[in-house]
């Protein structure tokens, strides 16, 4: 079975802090994705990566950056967290078919 | 621009009855894929079913079936014989036809409550 893991289920940070969200997949997938999920808005794509060191902006990249130094690991970085980044963050990976999701990180920025 | 619309923010159904969750999509491409995911209260996204735009038969997976009406651009999920464990958020998604990378566009979701 494909497994996608995320470093934390719940995270509380203060405004202005630098925040790292880690995602690891174990199925050698080329593509990895970061989404944020907010009520009434569904999942919105922040960034995705199709290979090591390759990244592309999604629909809402402002305030975020990403890093993919190894194929299995895709990190989301909030350079200076703000309260409007309080959300559920979901990581996913895929080859050609469905995307496989991690359990999500619920981030609260105070 | 590609778009997924789920017009039902919430639905409820009696246990053992069937329920249909609506999904319409907008694309000008001929080749695309449609997905349904389930998200229980625990938060993980569970893949349920897939329909390719060229598939002639409606997709089925156990109690889940996808009512695909290409001309109407709809891809409704039908859950037969609802169970209490079906209570969850359900998301419809479309694979972006162009640009590759297997990107998905999601709808806003429908919250389904199954009553005993």
Structural commentary:
- The complex is a heterodimer of chains A (110) and B (116).
- Chain A is mainly beta and 110 residues long.
- Chain A contains no helices and 11 strands.
- In chain A, strands 2, 4, 5, 6, 9, 10 and 11 form a 7-stranded mixed beta sheet that branches.
- Chain B is an all-beta fold.
- Chain B has no helices and 12 strands.
- In chain B, the strands form 3 sheets. In chain B, strands 2, 5, 6, 10, 11 and 12 form a 6-stranded mixed beta sheet that branches. A 4-stranded antiparallel beta sheet of chain B has the order 3-9-8-7, with no helix packed on it. A two-stranded antiparallel sheet of chain B has the order 1-4.
- The mean pLDDT of chain B is 93.
- The A-B interface holds A 9, 31, 33, 35, 40-45, 48, 50, 56, 58, 88, 90, 92, 94-104, 106 and B 4, 6, 9, 35, 37, 42-45, 47, 50, 91, 93, 100-104, 106-109.
What is the structure about, briefly put?
Chain A is mostly beta strands. Chain A has strands at 4-6, 10-13, 19-25, 31-38, 42-51, 54-57, 64-70, 73-78, 87-94, 100-101, 105-109. In chain A, a hairpin with a 5-residue loop joins strand 9 and strand 10 (100-101).
Comma- or semicolon-separated keywords:
heterodimer; A: 110 residues; mainly beta; seven-stranded mixed sheet; four-stranded antiparallel sheet; globular; B: 116 residues; 12 strands
The gross shape of chain A turns out to be globular
- Number of DSSP helical runs of chain B: 0
Assembly type: heterodimer
Helical content of chain B stands at: under 10%
Rg calculated over all Cα atoms of chain B: 14 Å
The unreliable regions of chain B are none
Write the SSE topology.
The complex is a heterodimer of chains A (110) and B (116).
Chain A (H helix, E strand, L loop, with lengths): L3 E3 L3 E4 L5 E7 L5 E8 L3 E10 L2 E4 L6 E7 L2 E6 L8 E8 L5 E2 L3 E5 L1
Parallel strand pairs in A: 2-11
Antiparallel strand pairs in A: 1-3, 3-8, 4-5, 4-9, 5-6, 7-8, 9-10, 9-11
Chain B lengths: L2 E3 L4 E5 L4 E3 L2 E3 L6 E7 L6 E7 L7 E2 L2 E6 L4 E6 L8 E8 L8 E3 L3 E6 L1
Parallel strand pairs in B: 2-12
Antiparallel strand pairs in B: 1-4, 3-9, 5-6, 5-10, 7-8, 8-9, 10-11, 10-12
């Amino acid at each position: 079975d494909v497994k996608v893991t995320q470093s934390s289920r719940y995270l509380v940070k203060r405004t202005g802090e630098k925040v790292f969200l880690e995602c690891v997949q174990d199925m050698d997938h080329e593509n990895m994705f970061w989404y944020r999920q907010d009520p009434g808005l569904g999942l919105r794509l922040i960034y995705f990566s199709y290979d090591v060191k390759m990244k592309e902006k999604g629909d809402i990249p402002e305030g975020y950056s990403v890093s993919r130094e190894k194929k299995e690991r895709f990190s989301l970085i909030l350079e200076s967290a703000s309260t409007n980044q309080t959300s559920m963050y979901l990581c996913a990976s895929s080859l050609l078919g469905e995307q496989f999701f991690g359990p999500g990180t619920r981030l609260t920025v105070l | 621009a590609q778009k997924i619309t789920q017009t039902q923010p919430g639905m409820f159904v009696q246990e053992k009855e069937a329920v249909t969750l609506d999904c319409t999509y907008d694309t000008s491409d001929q080749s695309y894929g449609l997905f349904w995911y389930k998200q229980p209260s625990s938060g993980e996204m569970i893949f349920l079913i897939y329909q390719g735009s060229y598939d002639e038969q409606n997709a089925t997976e156990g109690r889940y079936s996808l009512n695909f009406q290409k001309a109407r651009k709809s891809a409704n999920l039908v859950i037969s014989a609802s169970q209490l464990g079906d209570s969850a958020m359900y998301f419809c998604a479309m694979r972006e036809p162009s640009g590759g990378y297997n990107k998905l566009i999601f709808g806003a979701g429908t919250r389904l409550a199954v009553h005993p």
